[in-house]
Amino acid sequence: ATGLITLDPGFKNTGSCESAITFLDGEKGILRYRGYAIEELAEKADFLEVAYLLIFGELPNAQQLEKFHSDIKAESHVDEEMKKILDGFPKSAHPMGVLSSLTSALIAFNPSSVNVSSEQAMYHAIVRLLAKFPVLVAWTLRKKMGLPLDYGDDSLGYVENIHKMMFKKPNREYTKNPVAIEALDKLLILHADHEQNCSTSTVRMVGSSHAGLFASISAGISALWGPLHGGANMAVLDMLEAISADGGDTKKYMAKAKDKDDPFRLMGFGHRVYKNFDPRAKIIKKAADEVLSSLGVEDPILEVARGLEREALEDPYFVERKLYPNVDFYSGIIYRALGIPVDMFTVMFALGRLPGWIAQYREMRLNGEPIGRPRQVYVGANHRPFKALSAR
Ligand code: SDX
Fold it and tell me: Which keywords describe this protein according to UniProt (predicted)?
């Protein structure tokens, strides 16, 4: 398949490609991974199964899943020298910057992950990244919280191990919290892939030059960081907090969002593709209720979110522009209930999106796609003779 570059009337170059991984229908609010509906996967599968499905194209049988997980566990060690790089960051460093840097630094300690031209080398790089990335995520959080770095526990499930690495307190037994792990697993599934979004297109573009998998993922993390993309989940919480502090004055923020002179946008609303409800937002909204009540968490922010959503869905400005809640609108409320600091929310998005980025990178390399080279419509000056400094 060759990349197809099309220019839409607005000259927004919507470079596109062929892919067999994720299907979206923005009008009908449909999302499928390798043909399976997101609603079914979120209910019936776990994150490691979905990662396997996205990357290799089929749901794994018990034996394949067992081998996949044990291959990953065999690679869960992160070189001790990496801790020196982490120590170089101030505590105030943004976790997305730390994670992107550590992911790129991993290359130096895993040089064989650069050349993935054979299927075996690609598989090895994939299981290494799926093993080490959660450790880097946990280290990024624990460094911020002044906690000792943890390597997790290979006897646990993939997501349970992530939860333990992130939250195990020193000198205290780790208490398994099934509700929290189930909620985290579901959130990771819902973020796992989303066809050619900004960060995934970045991974494909960087990888198309045959840069290694780790380097391409590091670039994707930087793209996801932006507040118009994955950074929105943090911006939603900041916005809901501000509205709550303003006595819940949603009308004021709706007016700001509609004021063309005000750069403020209603974070967590709108989407480049969904011009109907984001199916993930529906699932997360339902889960937010369940998770908070089973964790016994009362979060007034949830009420503010519901009020804002109700108003926006009735407001002609938003209705005309088909602006509905997206995946980021409710996810932060669950992350917060799980004890995850706000500036780690986008890191959690990256953790969920990792298998999707890997699947898309692998597909692009297996398809032998040419190096990405978007075209442009030139709108600059015509040819003109040089003008001497004295004449300018
Ligand atoms: C993600 O692509 C993906 O799949 C991404 C993602 C994934 O899984 O990878 O789904 C994850 O990034 C979700 C989106 C998270 N971002 C936000 O929630 C930030 C807030 N949303 C917007 O910035 C915006 O809606 C975008 C960036 C998401 C989409 O922008 P578009 O499609 O380019 O819309 P636009 O900028 O062309 O806006 C169309 C109109 C404009 O008004 P008019 O010029 O027509 O008068 O809608 C307005 C915009 O001003 N508008 C908003 C708005 N989003 C669009 N007005 C107020 N609040 C908003 N959130």
Answer: Acyltransferase, Transferase, Tricarboxylic acid cycle
